[in-house]
Amino acid sequence: MNADIDIAAPAQPPRRIRILRRGPLETIASGVIAAGVVMLMQPFSMTLYGWSLVTTLAGTIAFTIASRFPE
How many Å apart are CA 35 and CA 60, to the nearest integer? Predict the structure, then answer.
């Protein structure tokens, strides 16, 4: 028997990657949604206007997925 092992020591929780947290991902997704709305309202470029719906939808889907991640 090895007397050096402490059986009563709590197990370490698994370390998670910091970017895979709810806060940073929701912030990024909100920024993408805001960029899509700005692209929708600008009067200068038809290309930006054309991509605004796709950008807003991508941000909305990313926000929905990010809201499922742990705190």
Answer: 12
Q: Indicate the domain borders of the chain.
A: 18-66
**Mean pLDDT value of segment 21-31:** 92
Hey, what amino acid is at 24? P
The structure's pTM equals: 0.73
Interatomic CA distance for residues 28 and 12, integer angstroms: 30
Which residue do the tokens 């370490």 mark? 12
pLDDT at 11: 63
CB burial string 19-56: b at 16+ within 10 A, e below? eeeeeebbeebeebbebbeebeeeeeeeebeebbeebb
